[in-house]
Structures
1.
Amino acid sequence: MASLCMNSTVPLSPSSHPRNNTTLSSSSSLLVDNNNNIHSNSLKTTSSNLKPIVVIGHPPTFVSAPGRTILAVGDLHGDLKQARYALEMAGVLSSDGQDLWTGGENVLIQLGDILDRGEDEIAILSLLRSLDKQAKSKGGAVFQVNGNHETMNVEGDFRYVDSGGFDECSDFVEYINNSEDDWEETFTGWVDVSETWKEDRTKSRSHWGPWNLVKRQKGVIARSILFRPGGPLACELARHGVALKVNDWVFCHGGLLPHHVAYGLERMNKEVSEWMRDPSENDSTIQIPFIATRGYDSVVWNRLYSRDSPDLMDYEAKQVCSVLEETLQAVDAKAMVVGHTPQTIGVNCKYNCSIWRVDVGMSSGVLNSRPEVLEIIDDKARVIRSKTDRYSELQAAAYT
């Protein structure tokens, strides 16, 4: 039974340890090396006879997914409706409202910042976890990388939390306490019932000011319990790293620089994950990568990779290109895919398409723009812009 007491000083963590969730199918085999990394050779193949997906690292850091189509989705910021629309466009989510995986053996990657600015954050996390389970049974996979807003919430930084986000946390705690299922079943089931809970909450909402204040305080307490290091949702986030390399592509929320690669992607992922999962391990050795990845050097990132500043001179652009090239060579990747900064022109690439920027600000809490998805097939990248005009050749690149 999954339960969580609002008055408890230490919340119950998910019953399934993150290490147990690395398995990609019931018939998988796991190898743990001397560095305590998990090597999973586990995805079921179908009639297409694709080679299995191999995952290295805990949380996943290096993935070999031979022959798979890779689909990358940017920042979602608590907007379940837009998230579903993006996933339907990507061809991995059924359009009948049943939230079924339709991606077959494809690989879906979400680039972080699911939290903040919207009221359906936990529902989106629940949906992606459910799709992950379904994808594994079909030979596909779903991966997430944590963004700076995930890290901020585990820190207890709630500056950007929508009022509905606090309400969802209160409802989710009550939902957990009422559930008799284990954590995984409870968590993946939330997306199916969250809308009903929201409707009931709206109908019963009191306009009496002091009571609303009490409800807000309750929501803050609930969020603190759920997301603090060792909390149930912090442990969920700990299942994901801050950087992920799939085939010859590297995915991260805000961008990688050479010193991140030099520190070690597996090491960085592992230590940040440990900090999220176990407060007793929150010591100085974990603060180093935590600080390094807190905003992914967001100031440098915004200047280097993301913003098309009119005062960026040719000389500076060459320097940026040099830094990017050095980073890609260090991680042995052909291109980098990032989110973090909304692109008002839609998904686009820069520096000879060695970096793709996929955050389009689709959440109603950001720009409420039309969702877009990056598709990578045989190292050729295309942008999926709409259902009717599935592919846009305006931004396309082939990598050899």
Note: The longest strand covers residues 392-398.
2.
Amino acid sequence: MNNAMFSSLNQSKLSFTSFSNPLPRKHSSFNALKFSPLPIIQNSQKGLNFDTTSQKPLHISSIESFSFSRKTQQEKPVTVCNAYEADRSRPLDINVELPDDQAAQKIKIGMYFATWWALNVVFNIYNKKVLNAFPYPWLTSTLSLACGSLMMLISWATRIADAPKTDFEFWKTLFPVAVAHTIGHVAATVSMSKVAVSFTHIIKSGEPAFSVLVSKFLLGDTFPLPVYLSLLPIIGGCALSAVTELNFNMTGFMGAMISNLAFVFRNIFSKKGMSGKSVSGMNYYACLSMLSLLILTPFAIAVEGPQMWAAGWQNALAQIGPNFVCQKTLNVKGRYAKWVAAQSIFYHLYNQVSYMSLDQISPLTFSIGNTMKRISVIVSSIIIFHTPVQPVNALGAAIAILGTFLYSQVYSHLHVI
């Protein structure tokens, strides 16, 4: 047999409706031909002989006008069948992530993290200013969610951003995420209303420990021993900072701890909810803010309420002094309004960017990035608010941060993330 196979049989003309077995077995010099979906490489060798004892399947590249007839080649075109052994097929074209693509992805995630951390620093500064003047964390938390929801509704209405296509199943999956987000948001705000920003974030740097423990005992995940060992300095550093904190407050401490646990569940549920969904990280957080606002608003009214907010506002103005003039009052109101607007806007923006990061990484990587950002928040808040820090307290914070670094290095080395 050469490059061409010439078929002529003493049978009536046959036509094929299926290509599953185009050659009858009793007329084949080899077992049933098998067809490959792979692209074909034409065989250019001369005088190719087929070994009928070969166990490798043969593949026919094309069949055109394939029929059996007594007519000669001049009367009817003869089908040309080029065959090759299966191991000579060309491999599939697959999308291989090149080193340049990997580097670009790392740069993209790095930019997300840097923006996320910078926005978070600004938010914490304005949030603490608002809470110092008006210590009502439930209202402050509600205003943050309301501002973000309004921003996204305007963006969708003006086509600045494409509105997500959602259904009932999406909102059903989002509900537990919204509950965890609401609890974590309020708990963190309560903590910052009672203690220094630096102390809240030192305690919240223990989030990786909560992430690992929740993943192990509730999700059944297992981790290598170095991962558990890396959690020891995190836990120890947070404990040392709490013991030596000058302005320790149990409500502030418990608020930070509850926030840690709630945000771990939020991140895990979010990653599961975002998997297989067409909703982007930005729109996902927008929907999360709106649902959280609906959940939080009745609780904020029940816990604090308009009467308490009005009394607190009058008390804030009274702290200016008995001899203040109208212009000064207006200045204070205007300044406070700017603080509230700033903390609400930056709260939404930093969370939106964080969810854009979560869209690209795992929940544990997200927890690491969330912890590393606390270094900048702790340092900046100490400088801006002149927070007194004892050497032992600073040592505890350094140990906790070092533990977080070791934790991230362990995961990077073991390729767990």
Note: Confidence is low (pLDDT under 50) at residues 1-50, 64-73, 83-98, 321-325.
3.
Amino acid sequence: MSFWSIVHDMREEIGNISRKGFEVKYGLRSRSHRVVHDEVRPMPIEALRQSCWVNLPPELLRDVLMRIEESEVAWPERKDVVACAGVCRSWREIMKEIVKTPEISQKLTFPISLKQPAPRDAPLQCFIKRNRTTQTYYLYLGLTQALMDNGKFLLSARKCRRATCTDYLISIDADNMSKGSDGYIGKLRSNFLGTKFTVYDSQPPHAGAIASKGHFNRLVSSKQISPRIPAGNYPVAHIAYELNVLGSRGPRRMNCVMDSIPSSAVEPGGVAPTPTEFPLNSIDSFSSIPLFRSKSTCAPSIPPGPLSSPKEKKLILKNKSPRWHEQLQCWCLNFRGRVTVASVKNFQLVASGEYGPNGQDYDKVILQFGKVGKDLFTMDYAYPISAFQAFAICLSSFDTKIACE
């Protein structure tokens, strides 16, 4: 049997495992709501013992898995890579070593990819669909250059109005966005006027992170996480909207202080926190989603804090200044074809040069958000922010801000 015959047969078996696991979990749910962590139930022990892959030499197995990973460059075919990691522990460990972070591979594969920084060279192109009736928002990864493709589901959010604020609960589950769900990963909270927002991560973004003290801190149920690890509200970004002197003719003025990212991250060789896995330490947690399990049952894996030095400044993102278009008689930004409808919600964020060598803002657009339809918006984000952070910042733009306009 040739090497590529082995790869072909293995891919077929993996595809069967993936489809069966998907059908069990989601009941043949439509493609538009398939999540980035397509669930793959591990093969039954008896079936695994009878499989022809049990006695495959580790060196050959690694080579096969590497070729499968390299050949599946985009979704939906990339589900085979996820399926490989769901077969058994040894396969999972190999795949976790092979699959690189989005910064290096420019691919989103496992759920933790949504908390890791985007590629440095080119932004990841996504889009957001809004459901006005249910007050929900869905983030998709664009699979093609077309603005209207089905996309790959990444994150969801649900708007919750309160007496003194508004919360957007963010989840990796398209159907359950409650705080007690297994998919809850953070939230966005606004003040009463909707002019200031705080992005909270449900888990510490780096070592030494301090949870916000308040009545909304909680310990999630043992079904979601081990009681030994508290899931709190860790501030990772603060967003502020200012008075727009241009009125409805120009974009809103906003700035974002990224609490967990140093300003040096945008410099050549700069580094942003990159978590390698969700900090869960319970073997029983997410038993049906093995990709969420940590390598050990001891301490969670949390990246070191880059802001440990008191002299280190936080990254600040600001609006890119628009230019006046004489023919259109309006203020415009170059979205390079990714935005087609004029809206006060449209924005481009660049790194502030407040702490830079020359004091001028950077030219590279880190986050771009704009309208392309009644309830359809594009979202392109780049290093050093993650999909979770970018999605939360864009959600803040949906609120009405009477005090700023």
Note: The CA atoms of residues 73 and 107 lie 7 Å apart.
4.
Amino acid sequence: MVDSDNFVSSFKQQLSMDSDPPFRQTYKTLFKDTNTIENLVIAVEECELPLIDLNRLSHRETAEKRESCKAEIATASQEWGFFQVINHGISRDLLEKMRQEQVKVFKQPFHNKTKEDKFPAGSYRWGTPTATCLRQLSWSEAFHIPMTDIHAGGSGSFNTTLSSTMEQFATTVAGLAQKLAEILEEKLGHKSTFFRENCLPSTCYLRMNRYPPCPIPVEVFGLMPHTDSDFLTILHQDQVGGLQLVKDGKWIAVKPNPEALIINIGDLFQAWSNDVYKSVEHRVMTNPSVERFSTAYFFCPSYDTVIHQNCTAKPSLYRKFSFIEFRQQVQEDVQKFGHKVGLPRFLLRSH
């Protein structure tokens, strides 16, 4: 009995000191027989996403160059659902500072990260609580924070350099998101104040991700295959790699570019554009020896914003729905099926 008590005490002490979430202990029932798990990883081709130099949008450039840049953004959003941008206006110093602060907060002991007196309630997430098999488990941890909560983190380490760095990053990236959304709207032949009125800094989210080394990378994703439930996502990632997306019916690996930010179309933009722009399935693969960090900015509307297409002459493919209705449906499906269904739920008819 004494040995058992010592073991439990030692185990608890290890958890309190370790920065990694206790994946193996918490999901031990999913690891009973990993030999029977179908191999999830096959060799995929690595490629570079369409690369767009945003300097060409400058008023110092010719109208022809500006229009050419806008056309490339729209084409990539139609054909890939993903692209990368350079000369995006976010300084290298700020990106590096964001990464440094992110590493610091994730390196805290696991039990510190779970304390809601240090961080906004519900912001720290790890693993997949609804997972019933290894295919549904994401080997990652994240702080998913509404922009309104950046200064609401209590008295802990959140309200220090990390908070101000996050705010700097988000404020700068918000301007880029607005610019790209308006360009995509313009290329549909439509101009309005929709994004400025509905996608405000207070309605958007920042998510800091860490993907710890995984001892069984063949069986477990860093992040399950999914599409994003927003208009646009702007991603800053390190050079470890692991991001993959579906192109022409097959998975491809995204080659990291240290100078670029990655942009991808979300579900709301696909519905709003009547399927002109594509919200593409993507995932993150695990690494057996190297951790990966990324920061994502989710360009979202207010919950009561109604999504409906009025940018194309074609009949709408989707019924009108609010953002909160979409989110609630996603949550219900994840609870019921273990994965997101997404836009097909809102089709007016089968296609």
Note: Residues 1-16, 153-157 have pLDDT under 50 and may be disordered.
